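In practice, a research group might receive sequence data for several interacting partners and want a quick structural hypothesis before committing to experiments. The following worked case mirrors that situation: the sequences arrive first, and a predicted assembly follows.
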Amino acid sequence: MSNMAVTRESFDKVMVPNYAPAEVIPVRGQGARVWDQQDREYIDFAGGIAVSCLGHCHPALVGALKEQGEKLWHVSNVMTNEPALRLANKMVAATFAEKVYFCNSGAEANEAAFKLARRYALEHFGEQKSQIIAFNQGFHGRTFFTVTVGGQAAYSDGFGPKPADVDHVDYNDIAALKAIMSDNTCAVVMEPLQGEGGVISPDPAFVKAVRELCDQHNALLIFDEVQTGVGRTGDLFAYMGLGITPDILTSAKSLGGGFPIGAMLTSTAIADSFKPGTHGSTYGGNPLACAVAEAAFDAVNTDELLGGVKERESWYREGIAAINAKYSCFQEVRGKGLLLGCVLNEKYQGQAKAFLEAAMNEQLMVLVAGANVVRFAPSLVISKEDVSEGLARFERAVAKVVNG
Ligand SMILES: Cc1ncc(COP(=O)(O)O)c(C=O)c1O
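A structural hypothesis for the assembly, expressed as tokens:
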């Protein structure tokens, strides 16, 4: 069966239609370049939605996968394993955290975080302390709990009764948060830079106020760093650049560099509320996933790589500014490090998808973040040549949209 021809039409025939994938089917990648079934080459500024932190088929990741693949693939959590313990040691050493829980995706990491926060509040303060506050336009995953905590009701409507006691306020609105918080607040959940919601940075005063309000009300502060973590913003985790420390942090995407893994990090005092049997996952901490993630973490957690992210951000910002000087379609470039959003101005409202499609026609993969933002989340080690060539392709795409 492995040589059976498959095409984009096969998707419509045999796959559940919850996605609407592009026409091209990528078949291989190297660094920041990808080739499709017809051997057409693309530059990848999307990174599999902020996942491929070292590009495609990085030798360190391929090496770790092959080495572990010949040793031990799976044991489940009736036993622990060396790659998981090594990775946890490194994550603890590099962050505020004292304890790590592994799972397989960002949604699962957040699901664990929300359940842990509820259990911790129940144990320490009583069952009245169950309110979870999150932010409009936030995104935390697609399980029913995480999509309910996410700030777009359209994604959680239509599936029956939702998990209760979840409230939303506007991001960066200190007064609104203050008004809704009380001693019954169990946790505040935020992305330290909203990704899917439009690449929106938090105001420094807002971040500080969130931390203070959480302390005041004995609520846990959960940072969803699924998109921002592991080098994406130029810090190992975005909280490090914001001057505050969360109580629980979730990571996924770049953590595995393309191999599925998620993690929840916290203190010992909070982690202790997850006693044996309270939560789990068959594949969580899988040796293959943890071996690849360990190699990715080693590569990202260096001054050279993190400094390189900031340098690359300036290449992008300069290149986009030069394009905008000619075509006047962006009102600003938002974001940090290599999570950047080109915000369309009045004239091009709602047309982000048109820019994405035009880029694809020029053999460049980009992302959108809502209808008005074209988003870039490339490899953290993308070369100057690939950035220049990709931006040249982006300029041609912009010209096509602008000139019609
Ligand atoms: C901030 C954030 N949290 C959670 C998720 C969900 O992660 P996953 O798709 O791995 O479940 C995403 C995915 O885009 C995300 O951006």
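Before designing any experiment, note the following. Residues 49, 105-107, 110, 139-141, 191, 195-196, 224, 226-227, 252 surround pyridoxal-5'-phosphate (CB under 6 Å). DSSP finds 14 helices and 15 strands in the chain.
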